[in-house]
Amino acid sequence: MKVSAPFEPAIVAGAMEPMLAFYQGVLGMQLFSLDEIPAQPARAAGLSPQGYAIARLQTEGGDRLKIVVPQQPATPGARGDFVMQRHGFAYLTFIVPDVRAVIAALRGAGATVRTGAEPVAFRPGVVDLAFAEDPEGNCVEFVQRNDLATYRPHRAGGGA
């Protein structure tokens, strides 16, 4: 499969404001757009029986994350007929240059850092990581890779 742009994962959430406060305020993502989608196209696409709000956030590296809040709330753990009747995801990974700085920002904002005050040396000298929770309890992973040029050569060199 050939793609035109990086992934844009979406998180189905119960409330927009706390999620924006976390992803914008704590993690520093920029709000790209905030839209209301009416029920008819939401139903036609199999997303939601009602309309929904969608926020698109972007990192400095151009990666995007969508936060969607359906008018008819999702039930955590449920698997309905519509995409937005499912809640959450397994976890989202951000590759960061300084995982310790991210942990400090998370702890300073009162976020739950599941791995504690120090990163886990997952592969000592190569990969350090931390897991935290967003305001709705979704797991977010932060990985510092000291071999980024090998792992993601197109990103490490600044190219597309």
Automatic annotation (TrEMBL):
Domain of life: Bacteria
One of the Pfam families matching this protein, by short name: Glyoxalase
CDD domains in the cross-refs: VOC
InterPro entries in the record: Glyas_Bleomycin-R_OHBP_Dase (IPR029068), Glyas_Fos-R_dOase_dom (IPR004360), VOC_core (IPR037523)
Record domain VOC: where: 5-145
Descriptive protein name: VOC family protein
